[in-house]
């Protein structure tokens, strides 16, 4: 288990960049006041990692919040992603410029390929390598890449991906993929840790909630971090943003970690990386 200390804690990427292991996701957050207020409150709460994407259509709002915040830009880890329709070498470079214009930033901390678009993602990866070489991004990675996608990229990559952001929750653990990423020094990161809300309708953490005096969301986020997985729970509600950060005063036992690991049902709430039309 990696060392989990507090909300300021990080996992080190293979190029030495420190990536905060808890962040704020902004998927489906409105580009106007909703995402601005959510990001501002997260930063006030102590978060130092904000995740967005071109397809979320809220990069402008995220950038606005960062500029309004009292937190220095260099202290905030900002992630965005190139969307599927923009993939390819030249088009990915243009998409990056467009994202930076919307964000109003001089550099990104992490830029990801959002999905492995067949026939394009290797050219897209070359574009990300150029951005990294030109020091416009501090780290580059992928999202929704299964092992065979990663192996395909690694065959041609001059720089190996630093992050793989995947759907990850107790019903979709994909331990073999996690192990592969660990072997290749690729940081695993979760999206939809709450199963797009399905988790809260299940009764899989009730005993643990009673045992630790924590909510189901807090149990699951703590499980993420103890597995060495970066978590970016999405919320626009101040109390939930605060609650999601209140996970550093307890530790799940080995037995409880194994219990949560054992719930895997290969159940996706999002698209299948081998079969998507996005």
UniProtKB/TrEMBL annotation:
It holds the Pfam family Aldo_ket_red. Keywords: NADP, Oxidoreductase. InterPro entries: AKR, Aldo/ket_reductase_CS, NAD(P)_OxRdtase_dom_sf, NADP_OxRdtase_dom. SUPFAM superfamilies: NAD(P)-linked oxidoreductase (SSF51430). Residues 22-263 form the NADP-dependent oxidoreductase domain. PROSITE patterns: ALDOKETO_REDUCTASE_1, ALDOKETO_REDUCTASE_2, ALDOKETO_REDUCTASE_3. Belongs to the aldo/keto reductase family. This is Aldo/keto reductase.
């Amino acid at each position: 288990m990696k060392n989990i200390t507090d909300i300021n804690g990080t996992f080190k990427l293979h190029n030495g960049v420190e990536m905060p292991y808890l962040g704020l996701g902004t998927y489906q957050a409105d580009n106007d006041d909703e995402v601005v207020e959510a990001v501002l409150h997260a930063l006030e709460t102590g978060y130092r990692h904000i995740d967005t994407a071109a397809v979320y259509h809220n990069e402008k709002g995220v950038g606005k919040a960062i500029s309004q915040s009292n937190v220095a830009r260099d202290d905030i880890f900002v992630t965005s992603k190139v969307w599927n329709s923009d993939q390819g070498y030249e088009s990915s470079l243009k998409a990056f410029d467009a994202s930076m214009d919307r964000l109003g930033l001089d550099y990104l901390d992490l830029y990801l390929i959002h999905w492995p678009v067949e026939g394009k993602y290797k050219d897209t990866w070359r574009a990300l390598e150029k951005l990294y070489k030109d020091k416009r991004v501090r780290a580059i990675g992928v999202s929704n890449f299964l092992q065979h996608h990663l192996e395909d990229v690694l065959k041609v990559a001059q720089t190996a991906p630093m992050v793989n952001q995947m759907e990850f929750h107790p019903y979709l653990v994909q331990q073999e993929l996690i192990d592969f990423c660990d072997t290749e020094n690729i940081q695993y990161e979760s999206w939809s840790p709450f199963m797009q809300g399905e988790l809260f309708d299940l009764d899989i953490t009730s005993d643990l909630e009673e045992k630790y005096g924590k909510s189901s969301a807090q149990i699951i986020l703590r499980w993420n971090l103890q597995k060495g997985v970066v978590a970016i729970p999405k919320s626009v509600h101040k109390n939930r943003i605060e609650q999601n950060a209140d996970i550093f005063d307890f530790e799940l036992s080995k037995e409880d970690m194994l219990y949560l690991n054992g719930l895997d049902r290969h159940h996706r709430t999002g698209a299948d990386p081998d079969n998507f039309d996005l």
